[in-house]
Each structure stands twice: as C-alpha cells, then as structure tokens.
C-alpha cells in the first residue's frame, strides 16, 4: 500500500453550499501527515469523509484500499479524534475503556490501561471532571487502543494550553514510534505540526497547494532578499513583498542559488506555509480585480 488516502474530484455539499469541492489529494502511507490550511479550506470535511462519518456528494475517496465506513471491518481500521476531543462527561475513565472494548473488535486493553496509568488518570473519575488536557489524553488513548491502521486527528489540541498541547503531542509521538501507525493531523498551529509531522499538505479552497516530506520542502524553498530590479532573473516565485528598493521573495529551487544580487536565508515551516497561503490570496485578489474591470 503506497497511499492511506486517495481522493479524486471529491466534494461534499450541504444544501446549496459546497464545504469541499473538486478536491484531489494523495496521502502517502508510513508518515505522520500534517494537514494545514485556513478556515473554510475543507480540512474537517475531508477528514470526516475519510473516517466514514460523511458520504461524498461528488467524486471518489479511497482509504486503506477501501471505501470509508463501508463495512464494520473498514470502520475498525480507522480511528478519529475530533477537535472537541469527544468523551462522555457522565462516564468514568474506566467506563470509557470498557465501552471502547465493547465497540472495537481490535481493542488493546493492555495498551489502554498502560496509558491511563502513565497519565496518572484516576479510573474512577468522571470525564466531565477532568481538565481539558486530561480529556484530550483520554480521547487519544481511546483512539490508540482501537489499534487502527490510520489515526485521524482533527484539531485535537486547538483548545489546550501550551503545556497540555506539549504533553498531548509527546504522547502521540511516543505512540507512533512504538507502533506501525499512519497519522493525519490537522492543525492551525504549524509549530505543533513541525514537532510531530514528517509530511505536510497545505489545503486552500479544497485544493492541495503544497505537499511533500517536511525536510525536502524546507530544503527546496528559500527566502531571498535583494533589489527589485533583479526579480526578472528569478523562477518559481511563491510569494513576494516589496519596499521601494528591496524585495523579499520566497522561491522554490532544487539547486543552490548563487546569484550575488540575492541574500539567501532559511525558512521555517510556518514561513513556508504562509508563503503558499499568501500566493493563493494574491491570486484571488488579481482575479477579483480583473472581474471588476
């Protein structure tokens, strides 16, 4: 299996509104994949389609070689943790584990008990009395103990404080290192993705704007600073900002850049993501101006 998720011209419509439209994406196996994009890009809709919670309006989607949610066996192969880290407030930690064992045929009771012990969660405590970070860790434990082949996490740390986010991501890293597990993690916090992901996809308006291994993306994109008159010599410009005399440009290049007119510096992953989002925003502004004319 070379891909855990493939979608072709995928779309989901609610009434007259398209939440996802004409989305084509290929997510490779064997990675912790970060999915990032602005609000309204279609990330959550894509992930819910992938987990079998939604049926597509248009196009095709294939997850782990099958149609999402098509059979109980297919459902068992995919774990899902939503943004609100859903747990039942009235149930204790122990009751959550017993429920997980009843609902999931591949349930790993030993793993669940071990994680709860490591997290120092009292099995008798009700989920409604746990902190936000503890609820998120309980939800992650349920997702991991399901023993899925693909674990999907949709903004799981969005509402957590920095310490709880760190602990959650550390737990995820340890779990993926110890098991053959494919992960797709969506987040607005690129710094969090940089800590745990080795593959990145930027989704804007339902379309993939950038995809690849994180180390390769960072190695093949550069920030250049130099005179505006030298812009014509550049190729594969992703984004640019200008003053009267100087330009700051992000470019994609597989080869080193030796043009003496430009000072070359490294990009952070967040810089790179923002460059592709800026590029899309600039394209939209240009189209809008042309329409007005």
UniProtKB/TrEMBL annotation:
Residues 5-230 form the ABC transporter domain. It comes from the Bacteria. The keyword Translocase does not apply. It holds the Pfam family ABC_tran. GO terms for molecular function: ATP binding; ATP hydrolysis activity. Keywords: ATP-binding, Nucleotide-binding, Transport. The keyword Transmembrane does not apply. InterPro entries: AAA+_ATPase, ABC_transporter-like_ATP-bd, ABC_Transporter_VariousFunc, P-loop_NTPase. SMART domains: AAA. This is ABC transporter ATP-binding protein.
